[in-house]
Design a protein that fits this description.
By secondary structure, the chain is mainly alpha-helical. It contains 20 helices and twelve strands. It has four domains: about 140 residues, Rossmann fold (3-Layer(aba) Sandwich), CATH 3.40.50; about 150 residues, Rossmann fold (3-Layer(aba) Sandwich); about 30 residues, no CATH class; about 80 residues. Strands 1-2-3 form a three-stranded parallel beta sheet. It has a three-stranded antiparallel beta sheet with strand order 4-5-8. Strands 6-7 form a two-stranded antiparallel sheet. Bound molecules: glutamic acid. The site of glutamic acid (GLU) has 7 residues, from loops.
């Protein structure tokens, strides 16, 4: 079983989406179930409705999953496992006051040393523990041996017991910490491979230590994906618009192009333009580069245009707000000039809008409008053009400039003869 484990604490980031795509692809390749686990244990940070938004985005990308769990529904298992660890003396109650710990942390910082828990409560006697009325947290005992993670992307990484330390697994309010809930749930879910962002790398030995302490023997594989950098070479953050999947949709990037892009960057792929289904055939998690991927808007735009070209006219017309094959064909012609749906809509909607004509051509445009309103239907552009020219007595720039403006709402653009076959049925509507 594989899992995608988003926290419902904000908008879906392209880094999360990349994690979801890779989990989906590998679950298909291995013929294993994909589980979505909403990690909603941090009540303060949860945002109402974000879980649904994330699930909707998965749906838009065609990322199908078989199971959906909310981590908070597993609280009773987290408590049970914590009790077992306490019973087995693999974990202990820690009564250290947060302000004292904070002070020790500051001291370590001032001495330029890494802070480590000083073990104050590791060996408290049963009486000292049971009779203590103060609030406490539960900590896992620092492991005795080092923990080695054989990461599919990063290779082998060794963590010393001090790197892992005696860390908190249950907070004072008896809710599990992220590491504890995650480690237990990966065990309960019988997860075989965890694919996630490399920002979780330092959590991994802790999660392995938890399962080791619980006596879980199955070895879970890990693949930590390098981060995505922005144009300036910094980690993409909320401040980078393109980090938000919602923003990408608003800008008019197709899900298929976004998926193509996120699978392509920092990877060796047999081709550049492909669909998610195709990627399932050849994707290899081992060939993801160790180095961070760099976000490249020009490349994304290029791919988006290629994916727009792959749509048939009907589909394309729906994306620009019509359900008409002819408008889809007009849109296809404009694909040479644009790379996003937003840009495409900016070309198509002026065709049907009221046109503003500069003074210079105002009179000519009035004449053309009048004639078109009463003109017979012309199958061919040439016949149409000759008729209007003849009836208005206009020619050259004085004819073509206002005609283009009336037909497209723009001064420049594709050949009118290319557009006319698809607009001929709407001419009386358009020319206004
Ligand atoms: N909930 C974590 C996050 O959204 C992911 C945890 C994981 O994949 O283990 O960053």
């Amino acid at each position: 079983m594989l899992r995608f484990a988003p926290s419902p604490t904000g908008d879906m980031h392209i880094g999360n989406l990349r994690v979801a795509l890779f989990n989906y692809i590998v679950s298909k390749q291995r013929d294993e179930v994909l589980l979505v686990r909403i990690e909603d244990t941090d009540k303060e940070r949860n945002i109402e409705g974000k879980d649904k938004e994330i699930l909707d985005i998965l749906g838009v990308f065609g990322i199908e999953y078989k199971e959906l769990v909310y981590q908070s529904n597993n609280f009773r298992f987290h408590s049970m496992m914590a009790l077992q660890l306490l019973h087995d003396k693999k974990a202990f109650n820690c009564f250290c006051k947060p302000e004292i710990l904070e002070k020790k942390r500051d001291e370590a910082k001032n001495a330029k040393k890494a802070y480590r828990y000083d073990g104050a409560c590791v060996e408290l006697s049963a009486e000292e523990t049971i009779d203590n009325p103060n609030p406490f947290v539960v900590r896992l005992r620092k492991p005795e041996k080092e923990i080695v993670i054989d990461d599919l992307i990063k290779g082998s990484i060794t963590f010393s017991p001090d790197d892992i330390d005696s860390f908190i697994i249950m907070r004072q309010d008896k809710t599990p910490t992220y590491n504890f809930a995650c480690a237990v749930d990966d065990m309960l879910g019988d997860i075989s491979l965890v694919i996630r962002g490399e920002d979780h790398m330092s959590n991994t030995p802790k999660q392995v230590a938890i399962r080791d302490a619980l006596g879980y023997e199955k070895k879970i594989q890990y693949a930590h994906l390098p981060i995505i950098l922005n144009d300036e070479g910094k980690k993409m953050s909320k401040r980078d618009n393109a980090s938000s999947v919602k923003w990408m949709f608003e800008e008019g990037f197709l899900p298929s192009a976004i998926a193509n892009y996120l699978i392509l960057i920092g990877n060796k792929t047999p081709k550049e333009i492909f669909t998610l289904d195709e990627a399932v055939e050849w994707f290899d998690i081992n060939s993801i580069s160790k180095a961070p991927a760099r976000f490249d808007m020009t490349k994304l735009k290029f791919l988006n245009r290629e994916h727009l070209k792959m749509l048939d006219a009907k589909e394309l017309s729906r994306y620009v707000g019509f359900a008409d094959e002819d408008i889809g064909k007009v849109a296809k012609i404009f694909l040479e000039e644009i790379s996003t749906l937003k840009e495409l809509r900016e070309k198509i909607s002026p065709i049907f809008a009221e046109k503003e004509v500069a003074d210079e051509f105002f009179e000519a445009a009035q004449k053309i409008k009048e004639i078109i309103k009463n003109a017979p239907f012309f199958e061919e552009y040439d016949g149409f053009k000759s008729y209007i020219m003849e009836q208005t007595g206009l020619k050259g720039k004085n004819f073509f400039k206002p005609l283009r403006l009336l037909m497209t709402g723009a001064e420049h653009g594709p050949e009118l003869s290319d557009l006319y076959p698809h607009l001929k049925n709407y001419m009386k509507e358009i020319v206004k």
